[in-house]
Design a protein that fits this description.
By secondary structure, the protein is mainly β. Helix content is 10%, strand content 38%. The protein has helices at 10-13, 56-68, 192-196; strands spanning 3-7, 17-21, 25-28, 34-37, 44-48, 75-78, 98-102, 109-111, 113-118, 121-126, 129-130, 136-139, 142-143, 150-153, 158-161, 170-174, 177-183, 204-207. A hairpin with a 2-residue loop joins β12 (136-139) and β13.
Length: 210
């Protein structure tokens, strides 16, 4: 995977447009009923980086970032301001935000996830790009200490405990996370006159499967 562990400037992604995309195949039968299926187990996010540009300095910053990634060649981190925390957007991160595993007395490595619930239904999203310094971990309601009790690979989303939790123990965690993305184009067209008139360039980015 060709990926640069660098985040697109968060001040520019703040005003961007985008969100999750699903792919659903719908077949209408002769009797009018439908059969629906999806080849995707997980959603894929798309954004427009151009929507967050507010000045010519922003345009210059974006072009420099694009050139450093060599267009679509290298992936990078993206902060989705509408969904970048393990818990509620309006409250402080907690080590109990997400259930990430159940102890079996042997397993020490657990993957970061975020669960989306609506009624009795839920979707568990795997996370791979955690924000360094934001991660908190607990076992059975007790917060653990980073370094002595656990460590994290923020580039893969893997949390490693120093000792295997006992069978049935609940492992929880809280964190901020980025979305791994790449530019979805190899060419950016900008015009100073058009930008000053209120027209921003279209700069699409798309989530990477990692």
């Amino acid at each position: 995977m060709q990926f640069h562990e660098v985040r697109f400037p968060a001040s520019l992604s703040f005003g961007s447009l985008g969100g999750p995309e699903r792919r659903t195949e719908v077949v209408t039968l002769a009797n009018g009923f439908e059969e629906r299926n999806t080849p995707w187990a997980h959603s894929r996010r798309r954004y427009d980086a151009g929507a967050g540009l507010r000045s010519l300095d922003d345009v210059e910053t974006m072009i420099a970032f694009f050139e450093a990634r060599q267009g679509q060649l290298y992936g990078f981190r993206w902060k989705d301001w509408s969904d970048y925390r393990s818990g509620s957007a309006t409250r402080e991160l907690s080590f109990s935000d997400q259930d990430i595993g159940i102890g079996d007395g042997a397993q020490t490595v657990f993957a970061a996830t975020k669960t989306y619930r609506s009624g009795v239904h839920e979707y568990v999203r795997p996370l791979s790009k955690l924000v360094e310094g934001s991660v908190r971990v607990g076992v059975d309601g007790v917060e653990l200490t980073q370094g002595s009790d656990w460590d994290v690979d923020a580039n893969s989303g893997q949390i490693t405990l120093s000792a295997a939790p006992s069978a049935g123990a609940q492992i929880t965690a809280g964190y901020e996370f980025d979305v791994p993305v790449r530019f979805a184009i190899d060419a950016i067209q900008t015009s100073v006159a058009s930008f000053q008139a209120g027209e921003v360039p279209n700069v699409p980015v798309v989530e990477l499967r990692i």
